[in-house]
């Protein structure tokens, strides 16, 4: 039985990854802030340890075959790069140093597709496409790219493999995080949508990709974990179909998003946290599309339809609300 150490265990991806690891005959040590945050089932092969990303975890890395580093600061409202750098870069450096000292064979870093250049319907972004604006000006994406570059330079006896997921949807999105996009359209009579689009992927498939990358990923390589390229209008229509709704769909004019971005820039200068910014509004106006060819060919991933991801997310949110009402 292989032993792995996982960070970010209670988030959308971390929970899905651990749930998939256990049936694969892995023994999992998971770093959590509070053990009570774990929403998956208990298992004799799962050990939760409390701490943060800067804790001394060296005693837990003995005989560990791989560290799977998922935890990250993904919020889009922080005002300064240093807040992203601390969690997304400094913590990765700290964890890798401990892993290398302990003789861990593989360090798998979960990054983001936005460190790579996006494409469009005529030419999709891939692992060799250089990062493009607006993500060259995104604190989040820049901190992830800085961590990628550091880890790839350190790859040696402890092999480094990087996975770059696109926009994940699925169950166990407790906050919710990426699942907020479902609430944008769910139970609404009018849905306003931006002109751009994203690549969407089931969180279960990203978890599967992580396991396959641990087992078969080549050292020093990046793997895009991606599936369906959809405009926001197409995605919201899927949400509406799955939830049995038929709201009025209204496009947000490009000038409207530009103005919102400028308002956000002004608020940020006043030290007011907001998701609005010219960078974030530009991201809503592009087709942020990617190819999954490398992960399919080299890792053998079989991706599920995004409809299944939406269905699983909706079912999770419904059950969560039902349980909250019963408390």
UniProtKB/TrEMBL annotation:
- Can you tell which superkingdom this protein's organism belongs to? Bacteria
Check the record and name the InterPro entries matching this protein.
Epimerase_deHydtase, NAD(P)-bd_dom_sf, NAD(P)-dependent_oxidoreduct
One GO cellular component, as annotated? cytoplasm
Q: Where is the NAD-dependent epimerase/dehydratase domain?
A: 4-224
Q: GO molecular-function annotation terms?
A: aldehyde dehydrogenase (NAD+) activity
This chain belongs to the protein called Nucleoside-diphosphate-sugar epimerase
């Amino acid at each position: 039985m292989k032993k792995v150490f996982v960070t970010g265990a209670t988030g959308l991806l971390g929970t899905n990854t651990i749930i998939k690891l256990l049936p694969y005959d892995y023994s999992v040590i998971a770093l959590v802030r509070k053990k009570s945050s774990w929403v998956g089932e208990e298992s004799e092969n799962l050990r939760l340890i409390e701490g943060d990303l800067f804790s001394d975890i060296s005693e837990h890395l003995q005989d560990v075959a791989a560290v799977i580093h998922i935890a990250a600061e993904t919020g889009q409202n922080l005002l300064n790069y240093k807040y992203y750098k601390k969690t997304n870069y400094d913590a990765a450096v700290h964890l890798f140093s401990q892993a290398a000292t302990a003789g861990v064979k593989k360090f798998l870093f979960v990054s983001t597709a936005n460190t790579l250049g996006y494409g469009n319907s005529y030419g999709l972004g891939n692992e060799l496409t250089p990062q493009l604006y607006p993500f060259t000006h995104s604190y989040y994406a820049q901190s992830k790219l800085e961590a990628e570059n550091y880890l790839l330079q350190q790859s040696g006896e402890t092999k480094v493999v990087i996975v770059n997921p696109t926009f994940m949807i699925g169950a166990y999105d407790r906050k919710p995080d990426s699942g907020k996009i479902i609430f944008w359209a769910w139970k609404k009579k009018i849905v306003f949508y931006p002109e751009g689009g994203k690549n969407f992927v089931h969180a279960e498939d990203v978890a599967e990709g992580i396991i396959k990358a641990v087992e078969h990923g080549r050292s020093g390589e990046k793997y895009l974990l991606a599936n369906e390229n959809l405009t926001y209008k197409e995605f919201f229509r899927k949400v509406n179909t799955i939830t049995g709704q038929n709201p009025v769909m209204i496009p947000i004019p490009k000038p409207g998003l530009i103005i919102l971005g400028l308002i956000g820039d002004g608020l940020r200068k006043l030290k007011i946290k907001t998701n609005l910014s010219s960078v974030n509004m530009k991201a809503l106006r592009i087709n942020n599309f990617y190819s999954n060819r490398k992960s399919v060919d080299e890792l053998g991933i079989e991706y599920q339809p995004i409809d299944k991801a939406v269905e699983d997310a909706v079912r999770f949110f419904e059950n969560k609300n039902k349980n909250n009402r019963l408390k």
